[in-house]
Every structure is written in C-alpha cells, then in structure tokens.
Records
---
Amino acid sequence: MTYNEINFNKKTILITGGAGFIGSNLAFYFQENYPKSHVVVFDCFRSEVTLTNGNLQSFGHYKNLIDFKGDVVCGNINNKVDLSLLDDYKFDYIFHQAAISDSRVYDQELVMQTNVNSFYDLLYIAKRDRSVMVYASSAATYGSLPSPQVVGTESPENPYDYSKYAMDQIACRYMKQNPEMSIVGLRYFNVYGPKEYYKAKTSSMVIQLGHQILDGKAPRLFEGSDKILRDFINIEDVIQANIKACNPKQNGVYNVGTGKSRSFQDIVDILQQELGTDLGTDYFPNPYAIYQMHTQADITTTQTSLGFKPRVTLEEGIKNYILEIRRLHQMPND
Ligand SMILES: NC(=O)c1ccc[n+]([C@@H]2O[C@H](COP(=O)([O-])OP(=O)(O)OC[C@H]3O[C@@H](n4cnc5c(N)ncnc54)[C@H](O)[C@@H]3O)[C@@H](O)[C@H]2O)c1
C-alpha cells in the first residue's frame, strides 16, 4: 500500500527506535513497498535494566526485526559516540521514534535526557543531511484536557508528557529558524496492532485484554469502563500518517487519531465476539488519582495539511489482529 507520490526507492531512511513497535512497522513498510530503499534502524534494544515501576527501560526487541534486510545499528540516542555511527550515512528521511515510551516513568532526568536532549542531535543530523524529519510526539501532551484535543492547547501532567511537549516546542522553534527544512511532529493517540507485544505491560489494552481472554479469564477493566473513552488508532493508519508527513503542506505538529472515541468496554466486547467467548468482565476500582477519561483527536489540520484520512475502524483493526494475538499467546514472553 502506498500513500502518496513519493518514491522512497533509492532513498536512505533512518528509523530511530526501529526495534520497537511503531519503528519496526515502519521498517517493514519500506522493505515491502519500496524494496530498493536503504533503511537504517538505530535502537539500543532492551538491556536487563528495569526502572522503579518494574518495567524495562527500553522495549526494543530483535524479534520485531526478524526478516528485516536493512542495516541495524545498536546504539543509544543519549550517547554521542553511538550517534556518530550514523555519520557514514546521508539520510533523505528520518523517522525519529526512539524514546522512553513508558508514560509512567517518573525519573525526570532519564526521561528528559532520552526524549529531549537526543532530539537536538537528531535535528542537527536532519539539518546537516537535509533530511525530511518526522518525529513521534504524543497525545499525552494534552494531559487530562477535555475532548476534542486540539494542537495548541496542552497540559502535560508527568515527565513523559512534558518531554514530548518540550520536543514539540523545540521543533516549532527549529521550523521557524530553518524554514527550508521539512519537520513534522505526530501526536499519536492510543496505537494498537502487530509488533507491540514486546512492550509488555505498556502495550495496548487490545493485546493485553485479548491475552486475558485467551487465558480463559474474564477480562479485567476499571469500574465504569464503558465511559472511559480513548481514540484508538490502528498501526496501519499511524504508518499512513508518517508517510504523508513526508510531504506536508505546512510544517507543524499534528494529531494522529481517528477523530472518534471508543470505550475500553468496546474493546472487550469486540474481542469476545472475535474470539467466540462469553467470559463477562471483571471490574475493579481505578487506582489512579489522575486518569484521562476521554481522548478524541481533533484531526482537522492533519487532514488539511497532511491529507491524512484514518481508514481502519476499531472493529476492523481488532478483526485483522486476532490471528496475531492468538499466535503471540502461544509464545514465551522473553
Ligand atoms: N504506541 C503508542 O500508543 C504511542 C502513543 C504516543 C506516542 N508514542 C511515541 O511513539 C514512539 C514509538 O513508540 P512505540 O509504541 O513504538 O514504543 P517502543 O517502546 O516499542 O519503541 C521505542 C523504541 O525506542 C528504543 N529506545 C528507547 N530508548 C532508547 C535510547 N536511549 N536509545 C536508542 N533507542 C532507544 C526502544 O528500544 C524501542 O525500540 C515513541 O516516541 C513513543 O513515545 C507511542
């Protein structure tokens, strides 16, 4: 599936965070649709370092890249020597996905260094190489603001949210100072789909609830989950946004969601229908004092400036994902 007129064949493409969920999907997208493109994945992969919340510091996994035929560079975006490994290339496009992607990491120094400082270095490479820069921001920048979330009104509530907000501000300054550059930030809402499995507890509720059901258990939801709404966006539409962001009518920061919100209860109901189960739901109290109850992206500018048009409904996205959810349920969680 191609999304615009750009021919990425013979282009050199950097994907930071390319061993992770969105980055590895991008890597395979280019491999499959533009087999003559030269794709370079840069990722620190996972070490055994865990953070105080019990999660791994980084989620990149080699299994996301099996069958990937491009270059793989293992490096840390916080390390200038590692980044210098990229000096041998001249990139036409940079898709910057690498980050502490776990929004419940509270080590401010680590989050800011990884997500923000490295962004200056990546922007420098983009300027040096005259690359098109597309980077991952987040709907988390909106905190608990009411829906619809609109670019320009943000309210970050934790270090992760703030780090993405800081990236957006840096990007906007950089766009003004370097009007010849193409720079687009994409505020992903709740992304789900294949290759998210190795994010473990930080993967989407689609796969987590799917695996609870396949364990034969009633899926667990917070009380009142029929009224906890999110804008769930399928990975295919996230790829579409990244590709369309390479040819923007205007540099900027754009929401990437469907523009519709659905409940966690909807996910459970669709999963049970697709998996042919009737296990009910196990409700428990929401332990979080601060919790976003409703997200729904305003995608007006994403449509007008990028030509983005979400295609995959939650029903279709889950239906297409079911076989993979089943396959992964059989896998050892390593
Ligand atoms: N998945 C979502 O729903 C979602 C929503 C909003 C924003 N985002 C953003 O999208 C981007 C991709 O997210 P994802 O869901 O694919 O997460 P992910 O954790 O699967 O991918 C991030 C990748 O970055 C790598 N990484 C982390 N720290 C690094 C470092 N110091 N040096 C080099 N590599 C490093 C990890 O190993 C991992 O492969 C992230 O920037 C994330 O914040 C994701």
---
Amino acid sequence: MLGRKGKFIVAGLCVCLLGVKMGRGQDPKAKQDAAATNRHVKQDRLWNTLQKLGEFGKNPEGGVSRVGFTEADLAGRAYVMGLMREAGLDVRVDPAGNIFGRRPGSEKLPALLFGSHIDSVPHGGNFDGDVGSLGAIEVVRALNEAHLTTRHPLEVVVWTNEEGGRFYSGLVGSSAAAGILPPDFATRQDDNGEKVSDWLTRMGGDASKIAAAKIAPGTVSGYLELHIEQGANLDEAKVPIGVVTGIVGISLRTCTASGFANHAGTTPMNKRKDSLAAASKAVLAVREEVRAETGRQVGTVGWMKIEPGASNVIPGKVTFPVELRDLDADKVNRIADRILKRFESIGREENVEISCTKPDFHSPALTASAFQDAIRASAREAGLNTLDLPSGAGHDAQNAARFTSIGMIFVPSRGGISHSPLEYTSPEQAANGAEVLYRTLVRLDAQLDAGPAAH
Ligand SMILES: [Zn+2]
C-alpha cells in the first residue's frame, strides 16, 4: 500500500467492524479437511520465496528497505524475474519498468492480469506487495503442476515503485499504465542529481517512451491483486480472507493560516493575529466535521509548519494539510465543503486568514461485483471464511481500475501493523490468499468473455 508522498502509514485507518458483512462460514472440521486436501498452491514454496526476497534490502531490525529505484530494488527485481522465467513465463519489462510475465491461453482473448509490487517503504516489512507478487508467481507454478491451460492468456505484473520512496511520486508503474503519470516524472532528478531516466534504463525501461506503457481500456480482461490488509479487521475477526469492496478516494489540500508575527512579550492578547491558535482550532474542526456523519470516512491533519517558530514570537504563518478519505467521493466533497466553511469562521474569530489549495484528488476505485463474487465463491470452495471491507490504503489496483475491472483479495496483517519491520502475515495466511487467487483466476477465466449469456 502506499501513503501519499511515500509516508503512508495505514495501521489503524479503518478498524471499525460495524457494517462489515461476514461470508458464509464453515465448521472447523470441514475447514481442516478442505485445507488438507483442497490446495493447489504450495505453502512452503511460497514462504521460501518470501524469505529469499526479504534478503534484498534486508535491515538488522528484520524488515527491508527496498525502496523503488535503488540497488536493493534492482536486485529484488532480478530475483523475481528469475522466478518468473523458472515458472515458464515469457518476461518483458515495459518502458515504465513494470515487469510482465506471460503464460499463453488457449483462446485469442485479452489477458487476465494479476500481481502487485515488490518495492517497500524505508524500514518496511516483508509482506506489503511481496505476498501479492510472489503469490501470483506461486499460482503460475501451481497451474503448471495441474497442467491447466486457461482460455485467457495470464500475465503476472510487478509494478514499478508503488510506495513512492524516491522522486516524489508513488504508484509510478501503474500510473504509467493508466496514463496518469505526472507529465514531468520521467525528467525528474533528486538533490544528488540522480535521474529517474537513468534508473528506468537500469531497470530495462525507457523514460523517453514512458507514454507507451499506457494500457488501453479493454485490452486486458481484468486485474486481480492479492495484498496484506495493513489494518486489523481480518486479524481481529480471525477471518482469513478479505473481499475488498473498493479503494478509498483521497482528497488532499494544503492550507495556510496567515496572521502576523509579532513580539510575544509586548503584543497584548486582544491585539494578536495568532496563526497557530487559528490552525489549532482548524485541526479540531476537521475532526468534528469528519465525525459528524456515520460511516468509515477518515480525515487527518498529519503535519504542521509553524513560522517563524520561536518561543518569543507569535506565529505569523502556519501551513498544514487536510487529508480526507472515503469510498464515496460525494461524501468527501460534502465534508470538505463544511470544513472550509468552518475555516472561514475560525479565521474571522481569530483575525487570521485561512486559505486552502484546490484538492489533489484521487478518485475512489470500486471493485467489480462479479470479481467480488468470484473471490467469495473461491474462498468458500477452499474452506475459508470471508469479510467484505474497503481498503483505506492506496494500491496499484486503483490505477488498474482506469483500464479494466478489478478485484482485490486481502489476507490478515498481525495486529494491523504495516510499513514496519513488525509487519507479519503467517505462511498459512499467505498461502490461503494465493489459493484464493488461483481459484478466482480459474473462475473468472471461465466466466469472462464467454459471450452475452455469461455477463
Ligand atoms: Zn502495497
């Protein structure tokens, strides 16, 4: 998952279970039998590859710093491409550095795409992105062992730089595929003069052709992503599989409270234009307005810059972001409108002007109901309970939703911890996710593009 500007921390974003639907359960005995006899993927094999990938960028704390566009990322990519080739996939890298591994199908149909990312945040864990990427490759190995040829060609994808640890942009590869990469991205360089274009070349991409990484709508049959939840819903409910209903939209504004910096000793209290006092009220107003409606929406003021920032000067200027997230874009806009009105009246009370930029808005992405159904049915078949839940974190799947139907499968994160070396998903939980991915792919392969009757 990605946080904006690579600082996303998602643990605890949506831990409320109210309104979450439980899938049809099975008794423990049936579940055990199913687990013993009913598996295509191999748990140990998947776990071994997860451990191996964790060697690239390994930290003493136990996690990894495998930030996109670094040596560790390159080494991890080489390892993953090797696994793809061993699984018989035809591997190519697109201009944006996205890795694709293709397995032919029996019919001339658009490919079914599935995968995730392998880059991490600095001091991240071994499961965010890795479970979905290596789970996808395990699915291919299992299909090979079952001698199963799907109707659709299958393509495993490992997206470039999901977390946005470098060059100020996350979801890079999937944004290129969706045709929404910031126009200046390919020419960016950092403070040390390192260039995006040089890194893309080293990754097998080509910055000058990055627009060609765009995937036109209708040219793939669907996209599936297996991922760790990064929240505590599944762990707390002890449910092995999450059926993601959608990925929340994110609205981000930067706001400025402008007052007047003056001497803290000589300016009387009734003559002040204290921008920090105004900004403090604004922070509480954000919380109140977000809480004023029922639902899972969240709103956060994540930092504050106070100027001039001295103990004997009244703060003249305070800058802070207002970040709002929900599956419903109308609700986000409605709440934002109320917040801006509150800012106006706070400004009047405090004799300070509060202004905000236009929102940088990432639309919510809903998963296709047919894909949700396929995931639920596949989990049930494998003896695994499911829980429907939205994703409070951003994912490459939200970009894939711009060119095809998407589905997402979540597996539990212990304690809801993510973006930390303490991030953990057990071998069994990871394999459960891969098994459901296998079955969902096979199910969708039969359903999709099967003529009008199947739609
Ligand atoms: Zn991720």
